[in-house]
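Re: zinc ion structure - here you go.
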Amino acid sequence: MSPKKIRRYRLNEEWREFTDLYVRRMPKTDLHVHLDGSLRLRTLWDLARAQGVRLGARDLRSLRKKVQVGENCRSLGDYLRAFPILLKVLQEEDALTRIAYELAEDAAAENVRYMEVRYSPLLHVQGGLRMSDSIDAVLQGLKAAEQKYPIRTGVILCGIRSMTPDRSLELAELAVAYRADGVVAFDLAGQEKDYPAKKHREAFYRVLNENQNVTVHAGEAFDVRSIHQAVHYCGAHRIGHGTRLLEDEGLMNYVIDHRIPLEVCLTSNVQTRVVRRMRDHPFRFYLDKGLRVTINTDSRLVSNTTVTREFVRAARAFHLNHYEFRHVLLNGFRAAFLPYAAKVRAVREALLEIDTILGERFPMDDLVILQDWRQLQGKPYAENRAGGKA
Ligand SMILES: [Zn+2]
């Protein structure tokens, strides 16, 4: 038995322990990361040169300015403007294989143990590539990285809201056809306003009928009705963002009761002005309500972030204590689109490792699960009221 650790901070000060170096060591997940927004800047530069594509940038610095939205972003529309530039060099199989491999390599380097990479094959056909070839190319890159690093991956295919429902249906067919090869879910991305998800419901029916998973970008920039559609028309098993879910209490309770996880992307939400500052994000409120919140990058390059950075920022903005931090880390594994047995194994392995690392700095003899901790503190999760909004 190791001697009992002395708590250096009070519970509400523990967030200070969660530094970049410390968090980097912990096993993590990334369930919401866009392939085309997460390549290395250097790779973007190399690919453009090799393919003779003009990106309108003299050097890496000016290229960074063009594709990393940061402070200059005013809306989701602004954020999405970086993508056509990135897509210019992503119309060939080799490029897709390379960026998929490098993304998994970068994630593994910061101890992401499970990652679901999403992208839309519809956006990679400008050079004559077939959609199925692009999927093969991405899977090939990810599988190669899995051979070399301790990371497991899956692919999520995204329909695009502003494209016709027929295109979504084509993608839905592919999400079904590639299920055995590593495609784990179907998603709908793009501008929410004016492009309701329910228009694409045939695609969702198709996917659900074949027992394939569904996640939907919803409640990011547009209001909570978008989440209602995602859950009740599209059968979403997870929600991308869900930032505005708190606007409908009844729906929020439903999402809590059915353990539908939220793929929260904090930095991205600040950049697209969905929230003004990180601490204005409802993350803490959701966590306290018992929502299954997960932390994700959205786009590593465009948002200039990593999973580690997102966790550190969350700990700081919402003053997470070690019970909460551990709970959110584990939520990522709990929410994975993995077969149940594999998921149980992944959660257990992560738990052992997380507790060993937390044990270096926090007293582990009283480490109980978050719900128990809240009970001990005399603040159990509020019980759902029936109904909410009529
Ligand atoms: Zn996204």
